[in-house]
Specification:
Blueprint lengths: L7 H18 L3 H7 L4 H9 L18 H11 L5 H21 L2 H13 L4 E4 L15 E4 L3 E12 L6 E7 L10 E7 L5 E6 L10 E12 L3 E2 L5 H37 L1 E2 L2 E2 L4 H29 L5 H26 L9 H8 L10 H10 L2
Parallel strand pairs: 1-4
Antiparallel strand pairs: 2-3, 3-7, 4-5, 5-8, 6-7, 9-10
């Protein structure tokens, strides 16, 4: 379906990502799901092909593109049929790396961004804690000045890529006396730093191929230059990048819903019941047609929200609406697609069954539906 927001360059990105997904990723997802990991070789290959450089400035080896490029990239990754693979990639490209791109010092950019672009180094973002997720201002992890650096103590939970990332951007409280949102900072912690460890990998309902870890920071010391941006401005950086995060989650959810509809249309055209293909049952094809209409509308809304963000137009309401909308819609689509697959939709490790489990996180991660609707309500 053509869109006024998509130009030739974005179509070229879409085509190259789709080809890579279909040829190099989809045939392997069952093995990676069973292994509970995405092989580093895949990330290395994607980095070499330039997929990680879309949003990185040209002076650091990237293409310097905007939110529209991220959205198209995420939409195509949504077609993988294994959400854990897509989120492993997107956390590096769009949830973590932008903190350095937007707010990091020139020294850190020179040191790390070229390696982030090629996949030589992979990143993660450490915000969520056992007792604080959407309520970022309630974070308890502390960072206390110690000589020419910071001493960090705390626990981070549900950290995608946390078990293998080379650099994790940790949100910590650097001013315990300030109001919650005003006392947080971001500090880059490198893999192998003394006291920094992934205590366990979390087993999850879905996203089996994604490494999701609990991180422990036990007297972890990092130098002053590892501070991202200004001291005590971390909350505002996180809020700003949430726009990017929610856009790519929205794009991925649209891609997942579209792929599920395509798989289901193919299935019901061939599955014979009561003497004819299920596609011949009016109620099934009409319900699928309505789901397609909703996905088409959501996709166009996602493009508009990304375009607004690229144009510098305040899009907090639109992005929040998008995240709430597609989080719920992708779950609705997959519920119906499983239903139309019948018993086969309930068989473990079929693509539809896997996608049904994976999309459940879309209305939780990156801002739960209820949190998103509150952001919208504030602006009504």
């Amino acid at each position: 379906m053509k869109s006024i927001y998509i130009n030739e360059d974005l179509e070229a990105i879409r085509a190259s990502v789709r080809e890579f997904v279909e040829n190099e990723i989809v045939p392997n997802v069952e093995d990676w799901e069973e292994a509970r990991a995405v092989p580093r070789e895949l990330l290395d290959e994607m980095g070499k092909l330039g997929f990680f450089s879309l949003r990185i400035p040209e002076e650091y080896g990237g293409l310097g593109l905007g939110h529209m490029a991220s959205l198209v990239f995420a939409e195509e990754l949504g077609r993988i049929t294994a959400g854990g693979v897509g989120v492993t990639i997107l956390v590096h490209t769009d949830l973590a790396t932008p903190y350095l791109t937007k707010f990091g010092s020139e020294e850190l950019k020179d040191r790390w961004l070229p390696k982030f672009a090629t996949g030589e180094m992979i990143t993660a973002i450490g915000v969520t804690e056992p007792d604080a997720g959407s309520d970022v201002a309630a974070l308890r992890t502390s960072a206390v000045r110690d000589g020419e650096g910071w001493r960090i103590n705390g626990t981070k939970m549900f950290i995608t890529n946390g078990g293998f990332a080379d650099v994790v951007f940790i949100a910590a409280r650097t001013n315990p006396d300030a109001k919650g949102s005003r006392g947080l900072s971001l500090l880059a912690v490198e893999k192998g730093t003394k006291g920094f460890s992934a205590s366990r990998a979390l087993d999850k309902m879905g996203w089996h191929s994604s490494n999701t870890a609990e991180l422990l920071l036990d007297d972890v010391w990092v130098p002053d230059q590892n501070l991202i941006g200004e001291e005590n401005r971390g909350f505002y950086y996180i809020m700003q990048n949430f726009q990017n995060e929610r856009l790519v989650i929205g794009g991925s959810a649209v891609g997942e819903a579209q792929k599920a509809i395509e798989l289901t249309v193919d299935y019901v055209r061939n599955r014979v019941a009561f003497g004819s293909p299920l596609w011949e049952k009016q109620t099934i094809r009409q319900r699928l047609a309505m789901l397609q209409a909703e996905v088409d509308a959501a996709r166009e809304f996602a493009y508009r929200a990304a375009w607004m963000t690229d144009e510098g137009i305040d899009s907090v309401r639109e992005v929040s609406e998008l995240k709430a909308l597609v989080g719920e819609l992708s779950n609705k689509v997959l519920y119906n697609c499983v239903q139309f697959h019948g018993g086969m939709g309930y068989v473990a490790e079929t693509a539809i069954e896997r996608m049904y489990r994976d999309v459940r996180i879309n209305s939780i991660g990156g801002g739960a539906t209820e949190v998103m609707l509150e952001e919208v309500a504030k602006r009504l």
